[in-house]
Amino acid sequence: MKALLRLTFVSLVLAAAPLLAQSKGAFLEKTVDVPRDFRVPVELSYEKARIVSVESAMEPKEKDVKNASEKDTQIMMLRFYYENPGYVKHKVTLKAVLLDEAGGVVADGSGTRTLDAKTDEDTVSFFVKVKTVDWPRAKQMKVFATFLN
After folding, report:
1. What is the pLDDT of residue 3?
2. What letter does residue 117 receive in the DSSP assignment?
3. pLDDT of 21
4. In the prediction, which pLDDT does 149 show?
5. Roughly how many angstroms between the first and final C-alpha of the chain, as a whole number?
6. What is the pLDDT of residue 22?
7. What element of type H or E holds 114?
8. Which strands make up the sheet holding 40-46, listed edge to edge?
9. Structural class in CATH, domain 24-148
10. Distance between CA atoms of 103 and 71, rounded to whole angstroms?
11. Per-position b or e across 10-27, b if 16+ CB within 10 A of its CB
């Protein structure tokens, strides 16, 4: 009888092993307009966490672009708004790729942050280095979110 129970237990463990080995997580992506003077909706969700929108700060102004040489760069910030009403905090890697009208890459940046649990609205941010003269060419932004558990 003990041998039968042991065999059953071993069989259940072996059957469940692939399920236990699978790690939870998600890779999400969305293309949005480049945030300039206002927040742009992103709407990427994983479990109860949701990246709601994105805005830019410290981006090159029109005066900066006019006075810039081809080599001038500026560090700008992308601020992502999120909500996570659940009881689980999530680690997320966000990557933003700024694209011109033809789909060419103008600039990119990324950061790994934690989305705190029981949060109605908060932000996570990272910096992006962009050539000052290229900033007006950026028309769309591809947002990638990798949720890691």
Report:
1. 47
2. S
3. 45
4. 74
5. 40
6. 52
7. strand 105-115
8. 40-46, 49-57, 73-84, 119-131
9. mainly beta
10. 22
11. eeeeeeeeeeeeeeeebe
Tokens of 17: 């092993």
The domain segmentation of the chain, as residue ranges, is: 24-148
Rounded to an integer, what distance in angstroms lies between the CA atom of residue 59 and that of residue 132?
9
Burial class (CB in 10 A: 0-12, 13-18, 19+), 67: exposed
CA 35: distance to chain centroid?
15
Structure tokens at 102: 């033809």
In the β-sheet with 105-115, what is the strand arrangement from edge to edge?
Answer: 25-33, 140-148, 90-99, 105-115
Q: Read off the tokens for 85.
A: 């009403």
Amino acid identity of residue 39, one-letter, is R
**Token reading at 27:** 């890779």
- Taking the chain (149 residues) in consecutive chunks of 10 residues, what is each chunk's mean pLDDT? 46 46 81 94 96 95 90 94 96 97 96 96 96 94 93
pLDDT at 10: 42
User: Greatest CA span in the chain, whole angstroms?
Assistant: 85
Q: Are 76 and 108 a contacting pair, CB within 8 Å?
A: no
Q: How many CA atoms lie within 13 A of 134 on its CB side?
A: 21
Cα 43 from Cα 54, distance rounded (Å): 10
